[in-house]
Amino acid sequence: MDVLVIGAGVVGLAVARALTLRGHGVIVAEATGGIGNGVSSRNSEVIHAGMYYPSGSLRARHCVDGRRMLYAFCESHGVPHAKCGKLIVATDDLEQAKIEGIYEQGLANGVEGLSFLTGEEARALEPNLVCTGAVLSRETGIVDSHALMLALQGDLESAGGAIAFHAPVARIAREGAGWNVHVGGEEPTDLVVDAVVNAAGLGAQALARATDGYPAGRVPKLVLAKGNYFGCLGKPAFSRLIYPAPVDGGLGTHVTLDLSGRMRFGPDVEWIDREEYEVDPRRAQSFYASIRRYWPELPDGALVPDYSGIRPKLTGAGEKAADFMIDGPAEHGLTGLVQLFGIESPGLTASLAIAEDVAARLAASV
Fold it and tell me: Are 45 and 256 in contact (CB under 8 A)?
């Protein structure tokens, strides 16, 4: 097949790579001038183990499988990463019940390397931590997300695929058994391909509505959940990632580390109605309160605004978190079309498994 993948984030690149390695002719259309300039450039770079998501969901399956694939890919391609582990901590009885549920969910999802620790056992690993109990996840890690995307791009191009930058897709229409894709930009053009994969992240819903013949009722709502991050001045207090019990819309204000050991906190959850990325320094007040539940010794003035990202959610505040939505020909009835909606966390971890899923759905439709 000749396939157009729309979006050069980590998922779009992984999908394009998988299709190219299967012998298909693949072009990635990217609206900006580089790879990973959207959702993929603004995350915590965590490799998730897979214990948070309902058993049998796409998020659970693709996170667990994708994590195993991702570690192998990083090893084989020299992508910087570290399996540093993490502690999910409780500071009261309600949070204790939450993390016990996460532990049981992880076992049900087939997550390896999980242990339930007492507060004393957790503090033996991380002396600066204060908690009543914790779940230790040995398979959680961190990755250089841009190096990962460069490696995916390298495989894609080595196998004959290509990326067209500054190539925003304006509309998609049926043409015979294939698709006519109108690409805007400085040099507008029409491409006729056998298949299209919509991996446009925050723009996926708008693109789906610009796809002739795709049922409007299948396009889910887009809910923007901004996550703010604050850097932390001074020497890192922890050697592992530290996560509190989850909150509505996210996994709580947690400690993440980069590969140089720098410590930062976030993301929080800020429900917004337009795309904007400025970090309000006043949000540090709520960060101090959240963090000091498990690290009371956080010094005053230690937090500085860092960056933010936006999760392309399908559900809003107070609603049950939605699963990934991978809408293929078997679901909507149009051959050669796969729409990806709501690919938020753990999308980076799951990217290689999502790519295999998309490739299989396209193969089954032609």
Answer: yes
Pull the structure tokens for residue 200.
């446009």
Can you tell me whether residue 354 is helix, strand or coil? helix
pTM above 0.90, yes or no: yes
Instruction: Decide: 271 and 221 in contact? Cβ < 8 Å.
Output: no
- Dist. CA 138–CA 58, nearest whole Å: 22
Per-residue pLDDT of 235-265, as tens digits, reads 999 999 999 987 665 667 889 999 988 999 9
| 152: phi then psi, degrees, rounded to nearest 5 | -65, -45
What's the 3-state SS for 110-178?
A: CCCCEEEEEHHHHHHHCCCCCCCEEEEECCCEEECHHHHHHHHHHHHHHCCCEEECCCCEEEEEEECCE
Q: Is 277 exposed, middle or buried (0-12, 13-18, 19+ CB in 10 A)?
A: exposed
pLDDT digits (tens, 9 = 90+) for 18-73: 999 999 999 999 999 999 999 999 999 999 999 999 999 999 999 999 999 999 99
Question: Pseudo-torsion of CA 88, 89, 92, 95, nearest 10°?
Answer: -10
Question: What is the amino acid identity at position 26?
Answer: V
Neighbours of 187 (CB within 10 A): 8
- Token look-up 């693709």 returns 62
Instruction: Say which DSSP state 43 is in.
Output: S
Q: Are 135 and 97 in contact (CB under 8 A)?
A: no
Dihedral sign, Cα of residue 331, residue 332, residue 334, residue 336: negative
In sequence order, what are the beta bridge partners of 243? 88
Q: Alpha-carbon distance 277 to 293, whole Å?
A: 27
